[in-house]
Design goal:
Length: 267
Amino acid sequence: MKTGIFQFAPKFGDKNANLISIEQAVSQMDVNLIVLPELCLSGYQFTSVDEVRALSDTVPDGEGISRLQEIASDTSTYFVAGFIEKDGENLYNSAVLAGPAGIIGTYRKVHLFYEEKEFFCRGDKGFPVFSIPGATIGMMICFDWLFPEAARSLALQGADIICHPVNLVLPFCQKAMQTRCIENRVFAVTANRTGSEQRGGKEELCFTGQSQIVNPSGEVLFRLSEQGQGAQAVQIDPSKSGNKLITDVNDVFLDRRTDMYTLDIPE
């Protein structure tokens, strides 16, 4: 499966311009699966809930989501893209999995970062997985990387590839995702944005780029630059995620001692 990333700097509030950039990039890539950054239709640094709502999309009929699906259909590509999801009065930082035949599924960000808590509801659908030809797909969004339970939940449900749209401002994620891949024996596709945003008198946010694909052994198959737009793809074999052996006698799932773990904070 040829899998790729499109790293770019979305124009804040200009959904049409961002969709044009995505369409141009995807149409020039010969890929089966491509991952785009978090909130790639809208930009990231919001100043009000009204602003977030104005840039949101419903699934599957919102204007932005409909156009994403059309791009998937026109290019015969599966892709994962971050967007603002509106469901009734609720707003979510979400990712959509789209394919040539339509929308396959969505994920709502479970672990909200910093000011996101002012604008978005916490994800309420857990960590679902979805099937596409040749692979089972799981999705995380940005700050989910800090919580190993997120990637583990997807891997336990059979995810071969974790698609990971991000808007990273902290320096830790790229290396941490190598560990997530080792401990779960899965592929991870982390698609970051570049550039910066400073709106409403807030602190400037500088995004770190370095989008990457990591294999189940924790090896970085490629990593893009810190700055600038870029698209790159690599051939992967998702079936390798089915092998959970880290030595001849150690299976990362079967060797777990779930009876010994503490998952809740003591009262």
